[in-house]
Write a structure and sequence with these properties.
The chain is built from 12 helices and 6 strands. By secondary structure, it is α/β, with parallel strands linked by helices. The protein has a single domain, classed as Alpha/Beta hydrolase fold, catalytic domain (Rossmann fold, 3-Layer(aba) Sandwich). It has a 6-stranded parallel sheet, with helices on both faces. Helix 5 runs antiparallel to helix 8 (155-166) and helix 6 (129-138) crosses helix 7. The longest helix has 19 residues, at 229-247. The relative contact order is 0.17.
Length: 248
């Protein structure tokens, strides 16, 4: 089974169009607070989300093909490092975010700053959907996908985003640490050519350290799954097939 994990600021519906193009069974998980309820006592830190994901994968009862995007990618990478027994394979973008030298982008700096982060989301949630969607369109997301992304954000998601980013300073690797050593489960690092949040050099170094494949996505940006759902589904199928062939 393929399991998809979204990022920020998104919900599991990010994957709807891509999953509709797949023939094999798949499920898209929802991070708590991102279009789904938060368990009691859940403080929305990176460690909370990692623990939650491990429990979710354990409950499926068999190793899965895990595909992670954005923060979903960061969490997937950490599962691959700690609990490869839960994975038949894993595929991620934004692998640069788990590099020891990774520096957060400008939006993250705002979200990690007390008061500034809260004001940012208060302003955003008071803005029209059309204006919010326009920001995503600047990153190459088609209008329909941009509106979908704009509709996902709410006050609970904003609160979780602030907590998540403030738990990951100066970067995700800093607390989790440990050497980046080869993973037991086969993996693929996707590098979208036009990803404004990516860094091909750092992502490639992470892939090399983990001993996994690198695949470049030409002409696509951070939200490749929304930019070309059919093409992205074909890519996911081809990526999984390539990893299975390598394992033979």
């Amino acid at each position: 089974m393929i399991v998809f994990l979204h990022g920020v600021p998104e919900t599991a519906s990010l994957w709807d169009d891509l999953r509709a193009e797949l023939e094999q069974p798949s499920v898209a998980l929802s991070l708590p607070g991102f279009g789904s309820p938060r368990p009691a006592g859940f403080t929305a830190t990176k460690d909370d989300y990692l623990a939650w994901l491990i429990v979710e994968l354990e409950s499926l009862g068999e190793p899965v093909d895990l595909v992670g995007h954005d923060w979903g990618a960061i969490l997937t990478l950490e599962v691959a490092r700690r609990r490869s027994d839960l994975l038949a394979s894993w595929t991620v973008d934004l692998a640069n975010a788990l590099h020891p030298d990774y520096v957060w982008h400008g939006l993250a700096d705002i979200w990690q700053t007390p008061e500034a982060g809260e004001q940012f989301w208060a302003d955003q949630l008071a803005t029209s959907l059309t204006d919010r969607a326009g920001v995503f369109q600047l990153f190459g997301v088609p209008e329909a996908g941009a509106l979908k992304l704009a509709e996902m954000a709410d006050a609970e998601m904003a609160e979780c985003i602030l907590s998540l980013y403030r738990s990951a300073t100066p970067n995700p690797f800093a607390d989790w640490g440990g050497a980046l050593t080869p993973c037991q489960a086969p993996g693929t690092v996707l590098i979208a050519e036009n990803d404004a949040f990516g860094d091909a050099t750092l992502a490639t170094e992470v892939a090399t350290a983990l001993g996994v494949r690198v695949e470049h996505i030409a002409g696509r940006g951070h939200w490749w799954a929304l930019e070309d759902a059919a093409g992205s589904a074909t890519m996911v199928n081809a990526t999984l097939a390539a990893m299975r062939e390598t394992e033979r």
